[in-house]
Design goal:
Elements lengths: L9 H24 L3 E4 L4 H14 L8 E5 L5 H13 L4 E5 H6 L16 H11 L4 E3 L16 E4 L27 E4 L7 H11 L10 E8 L2 E4 L13 E6 L10 E4 L5 H10 L4 H5 L7 H10 L3
Parallel strand pairs: 1-2, 1-4, 2-3, 4-6
Antiparallel strand pairs: 5-6, 7-8, 7-9, 8-10, 9-10
């Protein structure tokens, strides 16, 4: 894998710097208005870009808030290794909210052992926000990911239970953000709201950001199930008669490996990935996340409960 620079054209650079400036402004505004923010970090490409933007917002000073990872326990090893190296290696404070710990404490019940834990992340996240008295959480969600996310404001208000009501959100005319909340309420903040997947990759190219290796083509044993290529692991085993395929694949998004699918690819460099993304007709979550293949209403229900 290589991340050699490709010299994007001047118009693209100008567009990316404008998006960067907007995101940095949002991050600074929230830190100025709220008391205890935190940055959500999955070690995925969007949160990697978000972390770089936060660093730029306050450099040369250290980040004025910690970094929080909601850990399902069903992780790609490459992602966890990258998470620890990127966050703690930069001197940031890392908090890990563990779904397994929530299960052990009886906060949530795992209906299917070894199955997807994505929905269980909500309880782990809300507990972590409450235990640390966080009143704002920066997230890397983008409006182009899927329809329910497109309803989010840049500042998405949650009640004292962490729940989201799309009809109770505040208008944001002329990019003016009202961060005033009552005690116990929270704000989810999405500085990448106006970015696309292609913007994220072009910014990664421009800034020469390191990514977990699974974002680039590699050989992996997978099973093809419901139109998705799922990595063979201790949690995902082939069913009787289901063949194990050895394929050249990469991932467009990272998450719970039991529901995160790979795409066939030979793209080992950023330029090749950008070419593939530019030609894609399906969003990364629609193509590679089993839980996001459900209806937009199902995702909206999860968001109402406190999901990212």
């Amino acid at each position: 894998m290589t991340t050699a620079a490709i010299s994007p054209n001047i118009d693209t650079v100008d567009e990316l710097r404008a998006l960067e400036a907007e995101a940095v402004h949002i991050i600074r505004e929230v830190v100025a208005e709220l008391e205890r923010p935190v940055l959500l970090f999955s070690a995925g490409k969007d949160s990697i870009v978000l972390l770089r933007l936060a660093e730029k917002a306050f450099r040369p000073s250290p980040l004025p808030f910690p970094v929080l990872h909601v850990d399902t326990g069903h992780n790609f090893d490459e992602v966890i290794e990258f998470r620890d190296r990127r966050v703690t290696g930069a001197g940031h404070r890392l908090i890990v909210a563990s779904v397994q710990d929530a299960i052990d404490r009886g906060r949530v019940v795992e209906a299917t052992p070894g199955g997807s834990r994505n929905r269980l992340q909500t309880r782990a996240l809300l507990d972590a926000l409450e235990e640390n008295n966080f009143d704002a959480a920066f997230g890397g969600a983008r409006r182009d990911e899927e329809r329910a996310r497109a309803k989010e404001r840049v500042l998405s208000f949650r009640d004292e239970f962490g729940q989201w009501d799309p009809r109770a959100q505040r208008p944001e005319p002329w990019s003016l953000y009202n961060g005033r909340i009552r005690r116990g309420e929270q704000v989810r903040v999405f500085p990448l709201s106006n970015w696309t997947e292609l913007d994220v990759w072009r910014y990664i190219e421009l800034e020469q950001l390191e990514l977990p290796s699974i974002y680039f083509a590699h050989t992996r044993d997978v099973v093809e199930r419901d139109g998705m290529l799922l990595a063979v692991s201790e949690y995902t085993q082939p069913a009787p008669g289901e063949p194990v395929l050895t394929e050249s694949v990469r991932y467009r998004t990272v998450g719970d490996l039991t529901i995160t699918g790979a795409v066939r690819s030979t793209a080992t460099e950023i330029a090749d990935v950008i070419t593939e993304i530019a030609a894609a007709t399906v969003s990364e979550r629609g193509e590679t996340r089993a839980d996001d293949r459900t209806s937009a209403a199902a995702m909206e229900d999860r968001k109402r409960e406190g999901y990212f």
